[in-house]
Structure formats: structure tokens, C-alpha cells
Write a structure and sequence with these properties.
Elements lengths: L14 H11 L10 E6 L2 E6 L13 H20 L2 E7 L8 E10 L4 H9 L17 H11 L4 E5 L2 H19 L2 H9 L20 E2 L19 E2 L6 E7 L4 H20 L3 E4 L2 H4 L1 H8 L6 E9 L13 H4 L3
Helix pairs in contact: 1-2, 2-3, 2-7, 3-7, 4-7
The structure holds flavin mononucleotide (FMN).
Protein name: Nitroreductase family protein
InterPro entries: Nitroreductase-like (IPR000415), Nitroreductase/BluB (IPR050627)
GO molecular function: oxidoreductase activity
Length: 328
């Protein structure tokens, strides 16, 4: 193993680590805020939550910020494994520095497993898809694979049955309606969806917005709302598969782990030819979020995913250059 391929003597990342950091930054994040910073040091990388990129209105506690950082942590770990080194992940390693979301300790050279190779290959192919999916049922065995993928990192994933799905979608519609009438929410959305943001490397670009469901059954977040941009309607799948991610607690460590599990589910879905859309609105309105936790042994809902076979592919959304996210 040539160490300079990973860490240069001046502490800067070498080419192997640079590729892994690019994979980390390809992670999904709330409104594509990319709220992470990387601090490489001899054989470790700290992934730091960038509090300046928190969404004040949508995410006052920074919960979705930490979930997003957790997704980047997962990608970084998988990429390092796929590049042939062991990667141990410590979540919230310093009790007095909660901004350090995770520390990744690089270990000895190790032949990558086929699972790590497949997940790493899916990283650049995973995109949030807000368009209609095909009217093709996702087989139960495939959904079971997704729940197994997510049942890690102290997170539990369940597939909503028909009754739970109608309840979740109804609550998500309510949440979307609550949010869209809030001028502060709209202003924040506008700030992260600037149309034609030439040269902009964060935020949700217009070609990533999806249409409205003509039957109003699937309440995708309305990204056109921020700038008053009208969005077309379209026929969406009648029978969406809906997954729910729960954790045992609701601390920053739980949020980071939920983000790791979320990304594992999303990459596994990508490997299986599926696409997904988070439907987070219901988790962002506290009164609605607690309704869905009732009866689930005190577990806390962290995210809702719509999953299906994509009818149209999505393009990658922009990312900031790695240099902008490196800290000494
Ligand atoms: C914690 C979290 C919550 C998200 N919530 C939503 C959501 O409610 N609606 C949505 O359409 N996308 C949601 N997304 C997806 C992001 O908007 C998306 O990851 C980002 O714009 C980057 O695009 P990409 O996923 O295609 O790389 C969420 C992502 C994360 C990590």
C-alpha cells in the first residue's frame, strides 16, 4: 500500500482518498445543502457537520443536517472499502465536539467484498427521482432486501402495508399543505432552488424538480413553490412502495446512523434497478411525526421513502468541489 496515494506528507488527501471524498460528497442531502466538511489527518478522516448550512426554518434542530452527513459518512466508508482498505466508523467520537459527526479510521489493506464493490459502484448512479415510476410492483423479496439493508446502524426499516401507506401519504399531504402556506418555508425553498443558478454548485436545480401527481395521491415536495415556478401534472404509479426508517432515539448520533442506513437503502435500491424519493415533510412537522411513532414501541420516525422502477432517468445534481469542503 502506497500511503502517499492516501495522505500526502502535508496532510492533504492523496488521489485515492480524493476519489473516496468525491464519493462521499455524492451523497443525498436535504435541499442539496451538502452540509459536510472533511478533515483528513494521518489515517483518519473526520466528517464534520457544517452548521452554517443548516436550514433554519425546515430543520431548526439540525436533524436532517446530521442525517445528510450520515449519508456522506456511509459513502466514504464504502468507497474506502471498495478501494481496498479497512474503514472503521466511529459516530460522534468526541463527546465535547458534537460537530464531529463521525471519524473514519483507515486500516490495513483488505480485498474489497463484492457487496462493498457493488454499493460503491452505485454511488454515482444514485439520484433522487421525483418523476412518475412505472406501474410495476416491486417484488416483496426485493423490498425485503431493502429492509435488511436498512436494518443496520441501529435503524429499523419497515415496508408500509396498504393501510399504513394510506395513513403516511395522507399525513405527508397534510404536512406539505402546512409547509406551503408558511412564507418563511417558501423563502428558504426559494433560496435553495434558484432558477438558472449559473455556476451554482449546491441547491436543487430545476431539472431535478418533479411534476405534481394528477391524482394528488403522492405528495412529493413542491420545489417549484419557492420561485413560483409552475409545475406540470403527470400520471404517477397507482401503487407506490413506501418505506419508513425508525431509530430508537432522537439524538445527533441517531441521526447520523439513520443517514448511514438511509444511504445503504438508497444504494441497495440503485443496485436493484430501483429509484427513490424521500418524502420528509411529515417528519418536519413535529405533531405529525409523533403520530406515526405511536404504537411502534417508542421508536422515532426519521424518514419516509417512495421506491419504484423509474420511467425516466435523472441527471446528477451539482456538487461543490472537494477543495471547498476540506479543512486542515
Ligand atoms: C435527509 C434528507 C431529506 C430529504 N428530503 C427530501 C424530500 O422531502 N423531498 C425530496 O424530493 N427530496 C428530498 N431529499 C433529496 C434531496 O433533495 C437530494 O438528495 C438533493 O437534492 C441532491 O440530489 P440527489 O439526491 O439527486 O443527488 C432529501 C434528502 C435527504 C438526505
Amino acid at each position: 500500500m502506497n500511503d502517499q496515494l492516501w495522505f500526502r506528507p502535508d496532510g492533504q488527501p492523496g488521489p485515492e482518498l480524493r476519489e473516496c471524498l468525491t464519493a462521499a460528497a455524492a451523497a443525498p442531502s436535504i435541499h442539496n445543502t451538502q452540509p459536510w466538511l472533511f478533515r483528513p489527518r494521518a489515517d483518519t478522516v473526520d466528517v464534520v457537520a457544517d452548521w452554517t448550512r443548516r436550514l433554519d426554518v425546515l430543520d431548526p434542530d439540525g436533524r436532517e443536517l446530521y442525517v445528510s452527513v450520515g449519508a456522506a459518512v456511509f459513502n466514504l466508508g464504502v468507497a474506502i472499502s471498495a478501494h481496498g482498505r479497512r474503514a472503521d466508523i466511529l459516530v460522534l467520537p468526541d463527546a465535547d465536539r458534537p460537530e464531529v459527526a463521525a471519524r473514519i479510521v483507515l486500516g490495513r489493506a483488505r480485498r474489497p467484498t463484492s457487496a462493498a464493490t457493488a454499493l460503491a459502484a452505485a454511488i454515482p448512479r444514485r439520484h433522487t427521482n421525483r418523476r412518475p415510476f412505472r406501474d410495476r410492483e416491486v417484488p416483496a423479496a426485493v423490498l425485503a432486501d431493502l429492509t435488511v439493508a436498512g436494518d443496520r446502524h441501529r435503524t429499523t426499516v419497515i415496508v408500509a402495508d396498504t393501510t399504513l401507506r394510506s395513513a403516511v401519504l395522507a399525513l405527508a399531504r397534510t404536512a406539505e399543505n402546512v409547509q406551503r402556506t408558511d412564507p418563511a418555508y417558501r423563502a428558504e425553498l426559494a433560496a435553495w432552488t434558484t432558477p438558472g443558478g449559473v455556476g451554482r454548485r449546491d441547491g436543487v436545480p430545476r431539472d431535478a424538480f418533479g411534476p405534481h401527481d394528477e391524482h394528488k395521491a403522492i405528495p412529493l415536495r413542491d420545489f417549484g413553490l419557492g420561485n413560483g415556478a409552475p409545475i406540470a401534472t403527470a400520471h404517477f404509479e397507482r401503487d407506490p412502495a413506501v418505506l419508513l426508517l425508525f431509530t430508537g432515539g432522537d439524538t445527533p448520533a441517531d441521526w447520523v446512523r439513520a443517514g448511514m442506513a438511509l444511504e445503504r437503502v438508497l444504494l441497495t435500491a440503485t443496485v436493484r434497478g430501483l429509484a427513490a424519493t424521500p418524502l420528509s415533510q411529515v417528519v418536519e412537522v413535529p405533531r405529525l411525526r409523533s403520530l406515526l411513532a405511536g404504537g411502534l414501541e417508542g421508536r422515532v420516525l426519521q424518514n419516509v421513502l417512495r421506491v419504484g422502477y423509474p420511467a425516466t432517468p435523472m441527471r446528477p445534481t451539482p456538487r461543490r468541489p472537494i477543495e471547498e469542503t476540506l479543512r486542515p
